[in-house]
Amino acid sequence: AWRRVALLPALDIADRIVSITDYIDLMTIRHQLSSPSLSIFEDKIDLRQRLIPASAVEHTPSILLTRDPNVDLQSVLSGLRDFVAKPAHQSNSDNVFVVQGNKDMLTEQYYGYNVREEDTADVDKQQIANKLLAQFNRSAISWE
Fold first, then answer.
1. How far apart are CA 13 and CA 33, in angstroms?
2. What confidence tens digit (pLDDT) does each residue in 40-54 have?
3. CA 110 to chain centroid
């Protein structure tokens, strides 16, 4: 069942949108919003730990949420056969991994063809860990 929720006043950008507003304009406007109440949306870890549980919305479980660039992700991933791993901030959807049965489930989406399970090797979890850790201190857009 859907329920209506009120838009946070700090998120209301209707007066800044015009007919020629494009994606870059929209992201720039969003980036310029400065209300302290919006900080929870910038910090995905805070969002998952505070806002989502308070909203009583079903969500995927979190195995690891970290701000520590020295975390041993290889150890965390090594015991998992099914997981989704992604950087929490400014990844611009890069380095997102969906793994099921130790197989990369995004291959078909990226390359446009079906991959038979027997033709694919298990994912390289060290490589996944390295790519995720490389996202620390990275900015997706030049003005950030």
1. 9
2. 777 777 777 777 777
3. 18
